[in-house]
Amino acid sequence: MTDATDEDLMMRVGSGDRGAFGLLVRRHLERTIGLAQRITGSRADAEEIAQDAFLRVWTKAPSWHSADGNAGSARFTTWLYRVIVNLCIDRKRRPTHAPLDPDYDPPDPAGSALDGLVKAQLSGRVAAAVATLPERQRAALALCFYEGLSNREAADVLSLTPGAVESLLVRARRTLRVALAGVAAEFLEGVA
Amino acid sequence: MMIWRFRRLLEAYGANPAHWPPDERAAAEALCGRSAEARAALAEARRLDRLLAVDALAGPDDALTASIIARTTAVPQERPAIARATDVSGWSMPPLWQPAAGLLAAALIGFVVGWANLLPPVLGGEETVDLSDYVGAGAGAGTGTGTEEPLP
User: Fold this and answer.
1) pTM of structure
2) Domain locations along chain B
3) Partner residue opposite A62 with nearest CB, options B65, B72, B79
4) Residue of B56, B84, B92 with shortest CB distance to A123
5) For the segment A39-95, what is each residue's pLDDT rounded down to a tens digit?
6) DSSP A127-182
7) Domains along chain A?
């Protein structure tokens, strides 16, 4: 079952198959939390959003139908991303703006040329800069740069045109380039 | 591809050609091969990419995964009550013909009753209606006013 497509798993989940649901969660939870965290700037919010998103997957699965035999998992992931982005935007519309999680401690991937402390500081500054972007720019950046979606896929998730997604990305990266100009010098010294 | 468009691609999608729109990738790479200006812009974009990539996130731990699975599957699924048609998006949609047929039937009955004036004007009153009047007159045709004389 581990090599089943997302849509195959969804059909099983629709029949109440908890094993298939567990596989679907394990397959997509990391990117679900990652996308939500990059948009909301909060790890705690991201985990709650992941819970809500997978609750929708579970409850709606009996109504899931494969529109065509070879749709594969792209359609499921597009739908899942759209659910996540909408949940993030709904959460951001609440009265208080969730700041970057103060307890968030970025990991230090193995094999880095930087020591853990410098890398953690840099990661925190990058995350803080990303958190200042408007949510749509953040969502576009998270989808295209961090998740690797094409502009068309991101446009589908965000219900925008590819051109609009491109504009969001341009504005996001211009802002980040300015915000991180000082950090860039430190970083480049660190990896030199 | 013009250099301005190449710069725009870099500004939007960064230096990784895999992130560029597929229909422009070949032209962008060709420009990069023949233009020093394009290569300089690529190097600049790559610096920002490397910086952004530092922002690594921790993956979910096993406890969180298990918790999400356990809490979610404790909730009942939303099962469709009746067989449903599907739309192109893949999610089932409730069939529209059932409520539409019900409304149409109600409208037809109401029209026929109203047109033929088959009901007595005052329900529970003493007036009565002789249906033979209507049979002879072609189902009323607007003559049934409900004021006929009661039967003796």
Assistant:
1) 0.68
2) 3-53, 99-152
3) B79
4) B56
5) 998 899 999 999 999 999 999 898 876 554 444 455 888 889 999 999 998 886 665
6) HHHHHTS-HHHHHHHIIIIIS---HHHHHHHHTS-HHHHHHHHHHHHHHHHHHTHH
7) 1-102 (1.10.1740.10), 105-192 (1.10.10.10)
Are residues A184 and B76, on separate chains, in Cβ contact within 8 Å? no
Separation of alpha carbons A145 and A1, rounded Å: 31
User: What pLDDT, in 10s, does the model give residues A158-176?
Assistant: 999 999 999 999 999 999 9
Contact (CB<8Å) A71/B90: yes
Helical H runs in chain A?
6-14, 18-40, 43-60, 74-92, 116-131, 135-141, 151-158, 162-179, 181-191
| Distance in Å, alpha carbon of B6 to nearest chain A alpha carbon | 12
Cα of A155 vs its chain's centroid, Å: 14
